[in-house]
């Protein structure tokens, strides 16, 4: 079992930055791949970025060059550094840990980009 808790969301002006954290508890978090997803009001949840257990990363085209996903296995935490934020980045951001048949989600953290 893995429990995930997201934090770091908030209200930020366009062009600003936020760093989201996904803290994990439970066994063997380091072997899980982790993804950040977001869901805007009235829209489907979409994949933002992923990081594998081997530190490979992948990004949605809409965030490439602005967002960076990383992980600190010693702290059982995955981060999402978000720079040059735009109003379209607004939404609830969720952390997802997955491996084989296992799939865990956090409760989400709200990010609002507005002037």
Gyration radius from CA atoms, angstroms: 13 Å
> Can you give the helix content as a percent range?
under 10%
- What's the rounded overall pLDDT mean? 95
Poorly predicted runs of 5 or more residues: none
Q: Termini separation (Å)?
A: 40 Å
What's the main sheet like? 7 strands, mixed
Number of strands: 11
Note the total helix count. Answer: 0
- The SSE string, one letter per element, is EEEEEEEEEEE
Strand content: over 45%
Structural class, by secondary structure, is mainly beta
Bulk shape: globular
Offer a few descriptive terms:
115 residues; mainly beta; 11 strands; 7-stranded mixed β-sheet; 4-stranded antiparallel β-sheet
How would you describe this protein?
The protein has about 120 residues and is mostly beta strands. The protein contains no helices and eleven strands. Strands 2, 4, 5, 6, 9, 10 and 11 form a seven-stranded mixed beta sheet that branches. The chain has a four-stranded antiparallel beta sheet with strand order 1-3-8-7, with no helix packed on it.
Summary?
The chain is an all-beta fold. The chain contains no helices and 11 strands. It has strands at residues 2-7, 10-12, 18-26, 33-39, 46-51, 57-59, 67-72, 77-82, 91-99, 102-105, 109-113.
Write the layout of secondary structure elements.
Blueprint: E1 2-7, E2 10-12, E3 18-26, E4 33-39, E5 46-51, E6 57-59, E7 67-72, E8 77-82, E9 91-99, E10 102-105, E11 109-113
Parallel strand pairs: 2-11
Antiparallel strand pairs: 1-3, 3-8, 4-5, 4-9, 5-6, 7-8, 9-10, 9-11
């Amino acid at each position: 079992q893995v429990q995930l808790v997201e934090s770091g969301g908030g209200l930020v002006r366009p062009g600003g930055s936020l760093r989201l954290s996904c803290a994990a508890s439970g066994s063997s978090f380091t072997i899980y791949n982790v993804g950040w997803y977001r869901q805007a009001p009235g829209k489907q949840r979409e994949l933002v970025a992923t990081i594998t257990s081997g530190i490979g990363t992948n990004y949605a085209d809409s965030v490439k060059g602005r967002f960076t996903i990383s992980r600190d296995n010693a702290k059982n935490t995955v981060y999402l550094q978000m720079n040059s934020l735009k109003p379209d980045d607004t939404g609830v951001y969720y952390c997802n840990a997955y491996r084989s048949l296992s799939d865990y989600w956090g409760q989400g953290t709200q990010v609002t980009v507005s002037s």
